[in-house]
Amino acid sequence: MKNACEKWQHQLLEAALTGATAKDLEEHLRSCAKCSAELDELRARNTRLDELLPLVGQGAEPSANFRARVLAAAGAANDRQRARPWRVWTLAGAAAMVVVVLMIAVTLQRRTVRMIPGDELAAAQKLAEWRAPSDGLLVTPGQEILRTMPRLGESYLNLTVKTDEEE
Amino acid sequence: MTGACVSALIARAEAHNPEAGFGECIAANQRRVFQIAYSVLGNSADAEDVAQEAFLRAYQKFASLREAEKFRAWVNRIVFRLALNRLRGYRRRLARDTAWHIAETPVMVDGAKDAEQRVMLDRLRREIERLPEKLRNVLQLSLVEEMDAGDVGAVLGIPAGTVRSRLHTARKLLLEVMK
Q1: Which residue from B19, B48, B176 is facing A62, i.e. has the nearest CB?
Q2: B52 touches chain A (CB under 8 A)
Q3: CB-based contacts of B42: which residues, under 8 Å, 6+ apart?
Q4: Residue B39 is nearest to which of A57, A59, A70, comparing CB atoms?
Q5: Nearest Cβ partner for B56 among A42, A53, A77
Q6: CA–CA separation, B25 and B3 (whole Å)
Q7: Are B124 and A53 within 8 A, CB to CB?
Q8: Fewer CB atoms near the end CB (10 Å): N or C, chain A?
Q9: Which of residues 108-167 of B touch A (CB under 8 A)?
C-alpha cells in the first residue's frame, strides 16, 4: 500500500469486518490496485479469523464425573454445616456440666470445713489459752508499765498531772 | 437454564431442602460455567476447579438468591470473577503465555492443515492475550457457547450495545495484527 493510501486503512478494516464499503472507498479502490488487494487480503483474514475464533475454546469440556464431584463436595459442605449446631450444643452441655461439678465440689468442701468435731475444737481452744510455767520467770520489773504505755498528759507512775489552773 | 431446573430450585427453596434440584442445576449449567472459566484460564484442570467452586458457592448461598430465575446470570458472574481472581494469582507467579501453551489442543482435521491451524491458533491466543483487558474479557466471554451479548453484558455489568461495540473493536484489532 502506498503511503498516500494509509488514510484508507481504517475504512478497509471496517469494510472487511462489516462487508459494507463506503462510497468514497469504492471510488478509491477503482483507481488503487494495492488497496483492492489489501481489502481482499483483509477479507480473507477475516474469514480465517471467523474459523479460528470458535476453536479457541473448542474441546474444552468438563470431565464426565464433574457433576458427581460437585454434588459430593456440596454434600460434604452440607454435612459440615449440619454438624455445627450439634457441636455448639455439645460444647455448651460440657461447659454446663463442668460448672455444676465445680459448684458441688465447693459446697461439699464448705460442709467438710464446718463439720469439725467438738472435742477437737475444745482441744484447740485449750491449746490457744495454754501458757508455759516458765513464762513467770520471763517477767521483768517495769514490764507491766511498758505494756500499758501512758497517753499524752498521763504519768508512768499513775500520778495525776496537775494543770496550770490547779497550781 | 431449563424451566425444569428453575422449578426445581423454587421447590428446593420452598421445601428448605438444600439438595433437591441442585444436581439438575449443575447438569443444565456445567458446560457453560466450565467454558467461561476455561476462556479466562486456558486450561481444563483450573477451569474445572473454578467451576466447582462457583457451584459450591451457588449451593451455599442459594438462600440469599431471591429469584431462582437469575441463577444462570449469577453463577456466570461468580465463575468469571473466580477465574479472574485465580488468573491474577497466577500472573504474580508465572507468565500467562505458559498457561496457553499447555492448553489442550482443540479437535483438528488433518496433517498439514492441522499443523498450520495449530500455529495460527497459538498466535491468535497470544494476540487475544495482548488485547486491552476490557476488550479481551468481552471477546473471551463471547466465544463461550450459549452466551449472547446480553449474557456477556450481565457478567461484566455493561449494556449489550457496549458488548457489541467492544467485540467489534477487538475483532478489528485482531484483524490488523493477524497478518
Answers
A1: B48
A2: yes
A3: B96, B99, B100, B103, B125
A4: A57
A5: A77
A6: 10
A7: yes
A8: C
A9: 117, 120-121, 124-125, 128, 143-145
| Helix axes B160-177 and B111-130, enclosed angle (nearest 10) | 120
- Which residues of chain B neighbour A71 with C-beta distances below 8 Å? 22-23, 26
What pLDDT does B109 receive? Answer: 47
Q: What is the mean pLDDT of residues B74-84?
A: 92
Taking a C-beta distance cutoff of 8 angstroms, is the pair B173, B136 a contact? no
Question: What does pTM read for this prediction?
Answer: 0.63
pLDDT per residue over A108-125, tens digit each? 887 776 677 888 888 988
| Number of Cβ within a 10 Å radius of residue B23 | 16
| B118 phi/psi in degrees, rounded to 5 | -65, -40
CA-CA-CA-CA torsion sign (A122, A128, A132, A137): negative
ipTM, two decimals, is: 0.71
First to last CA, chain A: 143
What is the predicted pLDDT for the residue at A72? Answer: 87
| Confidence band of B112 (pLDDT split at 50, 70, 90) | low
d(C-alpha B72, C-alpha B33), whole Å? 9
Interface of A with B in 4-33 (CB under 8 A): 13-14, 16-17
Report whether B44 contacts A60 (CB < 8 A): yes
